[in-house]
Amino acid sequence: MTGRKIIASLMCVLVTGLLLTGCSTKNATDQAPKTTTFRLAENQPPDYPTTVASKKFAELVNERTKGRIKIEVYPSGQLGDEKSVIEQVQMGAIAFTRVHSSPLAEFSKPFSVFSLPYVFENENHMWKFLEGDMGTKMLDTLASSKMQGLAYYDNGARSLYFKKPVKSLEEIKGLKIRVQQNRVTMEMVNAFGASPTPMPYGEVFSSLQTGVIDSAENNFPSYYTSNHYQAAKYCLLNKHQRAPEVLLMSKFVWDKMSEEDKKILKQSALEAGKYQRQLWTAFEKDSEAKLRAAGVTITDVTDFKPWQAAVKPVIDKYGAEFKAEMEAIEKARK
Length: 334
Known about the structure:
D-Maltodextrin-Binding Protein, domain 2; DctP_fam; globular; C4-dicarboxylate ABC transporter; TRAP_DctP_sf; 5-stranded mixed β-sheet; carbohydrate binding; 11 strands; 4-stranded mixed β-sheet; signal; alpha/beta
């Protein structure tokens, strides 16, 4: 073989090798999973149980889709307040969020049932309902408002706290109690014989300090983290409402998911919800211990019958609007 033929042969081998290498690189690139990144809005701090659980949800989804779906959690209201975030989720600008169930009643009437006082005997009763057929169906009723419910998170029970010692239902008559802008909650406070005073959450602390209101109501963690206990050191555990949180996503984004990914999202959300309940229980106990250590007087209600009797007209009035839900709640009691 002449020198020219040897060089030509070597060039052919080199070109063939380069072509094969190029094809191999292209195939590897084509086979690599594409990552789609979504945002999840959370208005609580990074260490709050709902935020930690939402991060767990993101981890499970990322793991089970082998990196195809990445969910970034934005805590502390970075993406806006609850109302504006819900609007962005409906438009598809934000894919996921965690919100309290109360504002969802504006979009799906059955969610109003959670505002009714004393419909749940205890935590176990509530979760039996939420994890049953009716609770699951309620998550899907948000679809008409361009949202898809995924799972419930725990939010404990709401109780009253005051500027002065209060130990019974009779002692709250005539007092001004801050409430959310919610017709059922306002009528509940009226039924207690007190004066409902709706106002933004951010104004409660100063209003307690200045005497604009005598009382407010919330769960232990919120009572502690808001510093409301510094202005209202007397808590009465009347546990008048149990309303869950909801992890949801944009229906616009949901409809673009494959059936496989929808199953992954639902299952991951349910597991994150169970994880959040464990975190919440520990967080609630820790908050109670800190409140007691700070000098807060916590009084247990041992007989709920007078409280239940006082609000029966409210339940009779609004319960008729939620016949199917109330029947399911009653069934879950057994």
